[in-house]
From TrEMBL:
UniProt feature coiled coil, ranges: 94-124
Short name of one Pfam family: FlgN
Classification via Gene3D superfamilies: FlgN-like
Protein name: Flagellar protein FlgN
Source organism phylogeny: Bacteria, Bacillati, Bacillota, Bacilli, Bacillales
InterPro entries in the record: FlgN-like, FlgN-like_sf
SUPFAM superfamilies linked: FlgN-like
């Protein structure tokens, strides 16, 4: 028989894990701005561990919620906090579950915003790296006019090398 105290422990654990992920996302933003690849790798490793922990906690929560529903004679596979709020008759339990749900929604919303910002920073960094690589590996104009053609129509397409050996 599942009990509510186990559920609250799991929910508190989920909140703490999401807060830790939010903290890491903020650290990641600073690291992306600095361009510190080693620190970025360390943060990514920590994020992977947190994601595994969140996944394990979420699976345990789903199993516990399924059990709570079964104890009430209801068959439900993927019960949500909203479903639990509707299930319980105690005003205290409803208030506590509502507070937990709102806290999780708030933290996840902030985490989503941080991740979107970090994604934009990564895209900008990638664009900068691509532009820099294009500048470094760009072939000189005279390579289009001189040399053996690679195509049957005589047009020489761009051939890129990592370093310009003619410089």
């Amino acid at each position: 028989m599942a009990n509510w105290s186990n559920l609250y422990e799991l929910l508190d654990n989920l909140i703490q894990l999401h807060k830790a992920m939010l903290t890491l996302a903020g650290q990641k933003r600073g690291v992306l701005i600095k361009g510190d690849v080693d620190q970025l790798m360390a943060i990514t490793t920590q994020e992977k561990k947190l994601i595994k922990a969140v996944d394990a906690s979420e699976n345990a929560r789903q199993a516990l919620v399924t059990q709570l529903f079964a104890d009430q004679g209801i068959q439900r596979e993927n019960g949500t906090l909203e479903d639990l709020i509707k299930l319980t008759t105690s005003p205290e339990e409803k208030a506590r579950l509502t507070a937990v749900r709102e806290e999780l929604k708030r933290i996840i919303g902030e985490l989503r915003q941080e991740n979107e910002l970090n994604q934009q920073l990564l895209k900008q960094s990638l664009s900068f790296v691509t532009m820099t690589l294009d500048l470094i590996t760009d072939t000189p104009e005279d390579d289009y006019f001189y040399g053996k053609s690679n195509r049957s129509d005589g047009h020489r397409g761009p051939t890129r090398t990592f370093f310009n050996t003619k410089a």
